[in-house]
Amino acid sequence: MSILFEPIEFGKLALPNRFVHTGCYECMARDDGQVSEALVRRYSRLGKGRIGLIVTGYMFVSQDGKANPFQTGISNDSMIPGLARIADAVHEKGGRIAFQLVHAGRQTTRQICGKQPAGPSASGRDPIYLVKPRQLSDSQIVEIIEAYADAAKRAATAGADAIHISAAGGYLLNQFLSPFFNQRQDMWGGSDENRFRLLKEIILAMQSAVPKPMPIIVKMNTRDATPIEGINLEMALRYAAWLKELGIAALEIASGTLLYSNMQMWRGRVPVTEIIRSLPWWKKPLAWFSLKALERKDTGFLEGWNLKDAAAVKAHVPDMPVITVGGMRTLAQMEAAVQKGLTDCIGMCRPFLREPNLVIKFQDDRAGEAKCDSCNRCLGAAANLWPVGCYNKGIPKGKGRAADREQ
Ligand SMILES: Cc1cc2nc3c(=O)[nH]c(=O)nc-3n(C[C@H](O)[C@H](O)[C@H](O)COP(=O)(O)O)c2cc1C
User: Fold this and answer.
1) Index of the ligand 1 atom closest to the CA of residue 378
2) pLDDT digit string (tens) for 298-355?
3) Whose CA is nearest to atom 30 of ligand 1?
């Protein structure tokens, strides 16, 4: 039997194999973040796929931390019944599900989150949303910690098997961890210990909010690839050791940030025409030039581009299960990575959009690699508000408002 089909435990959660469906924003919830029928159907389909653990798309823990339209919410108790339907849909098919929690921080817009976006510092205007963030005050930071703890409690009530914290991708927790975004000189910045404090306080608050055996998983960058260096490998190793001390059940290794280095998050083709289509007319010309410039940069697909860093993390905290995500595509490479102890689990996102039954195909010897060719039209589709899926053959015309059609 392939080592990929050997069981593993994330804390008290037993997984039958080493495959993790990583966070994948669905663009399928209703306007207010409530779960739609389409979302339930999506997770029911994924539940059938024998995937070791399914991580949902990120769910916003508070309205002012909402990252995207039609994003699923976990910000108030009225959302629990819908969220329970997602967990039930996966369990009925024999799967396990982790709810991913996020606060977007400065990585959103006023239109989406209802306020001027806020981050650790008020520095800079990002090159994509063109947002100048406001700086979070101490009391606002405390409110965010409480929002995460409340969201974790809701996840447990709704029946999630684990909680997954997005501290990668350039969202709020990534912003606090990174000296590029975080220029504070108070207790929340100025040193690695201080930059780590918000994630630490959130984990501690969650641990006292949820029943004991609930595993908490963290997704973290080993490199932000921001214009001025943010998180680097050395810093990430330090953070990883502290996460281990806090009793984290597993650590997912990623890289890149949405607004400054997004092609590092999902290496492959730059979806130029699809992104341009999603923009207002006044943003198109400048966006065209920057996307074309991006195409000329080193952003192409690389097999397992985070694996080397994940292996360094694994060597540094050998007792903590590590999930590697980013360009994991061939069975041979996945097996070798786990066999050599470079990683414990294989995370994939885009491949499951194309083949939700990929794990079954691997197990039944019907495939040796994922069909996903990283065309990134899935991202182009999301930018145009189409529900998540594989759009390898092209995205439909016009704006997609699938969630609305469901209501
Ligand atoms: C359409 C799309 C949506 C994504 N949404 C999320 C998300 O909600 N949370 C998250 O942690 N990562 C998200 N990601 C990043 C993936 O989890 C993953 O890190 C990245 O795509 C690289 O892995 P892959 O090569 O297997 O696709 C998303 C990626 C794509 C393509």
Assistant:
1) 1
2) 899 999 999 999 999 999 999 999 999 999 999 999 999 999 999 999 999 999 999 9
3) 24
- Collapse the DSSP code of 37 into the 3-class scheme (helix H, G, I; strand E, B; otherwise coil) and give the result: helix
The residue behind tokens 């492959």 is: 268
Mutate to test the pocket of ligand 1, among 22, 74, 348 (most ligand atoms within 8 A of CB): 22
Q: 190 Cβ partners below 8 Å, 6+ apart?
A: 184
User: What would the CATH number be for the domain defined by 3-406?
Assistant: 3.20.20.70
Label residues 163-197 b or e (16+ Cβ within 10 Å = b).
bbbbbbbbbbbbbbbbbbbbebeeebbeeeebbbb
Which residues have any ligand 1 atom within 6 Å of their CB?
A: 22-25, 57-58, 100, 166, 169, 219, 254, 265-266, 325-328, 348-351, 378-379, 382, 388
- For 359-398, write each residue's pLDDT tens digit: 999 999 999 999 999 999 999 999 999 999 999 999 987 6
**CA-CA distance, 34 to 28, in Å (whole number)?**
9
pTM value is: 0.97
Rounded-to-integer distance, Cα 211 and Cα 231, Å: 32
Please report, for the chain, the start and end positions of each structural domain, with discontinuous segments joined by +: 3-406
